[in-house]
Design goal:
Elements: H1 3-12, H2 14-25, H3 35-51, E1 55-59, E2 67-71
Antiparallel strand pairs: 1-2
Length: 89
C-alpha cells in the first residue's frame, strides 16, 4: 500500500479512530483500579483487533492482569514481526 493511500485512509477514518482511542483511554487500568477494569480493557483490545482481522486470545497467569495475544498471518512464508506494549494506564 502506498504512503498516499495510507494517509488518505487515516484522514478518512480520523474521527472513528480517535473515538476508539478515547474509549480505550477511559478504561481505568492503574494499579489502584479494580481488576475487572483490566479484564474489560483486555477484552476491548481483543474485540478491536478481532475486527481488524487478527486472531486473538486472552492469556492469564496466576491472577496477573490478562495478556492480549493477537496474531495476523499473511502466509506461512512471511517473516514474523513481534510488537509488545502495555495497555495499562
Amino acid at each position: 500500500m502506498s504512503e498516499n493511500k495510507i494517509n488518505a485512509y487515516l484522514l478518512a477514518h480520523r474521527d472513528e479512530n480517535l473515538a476508539g482511542l478515547f474509549e480505550l483511554l477511559r478504561i481505568k487500568t492503574s494499579i489502584n483500579d479494580a481488576p475487572q477494569n483490566f479484564q474489560r480493557c483486555a477484552r476491548w483490545l481483543c474485540d478491536r483487533l478481532g475486527t481488524a482481522g487478527f486472531n486473538t486470545e486472552l492469556l492469564t497467569i496466576d491472577g496477573a492482569p490478562p495478556y492480549v495475544f493477537a496474531e495476523y498471518r499473511v502466509s506461512d512464508d512471511a517473516p514474523t514481526v513481534l510488537l509488545y506494549g502495555h495497555y495499562d494506564v
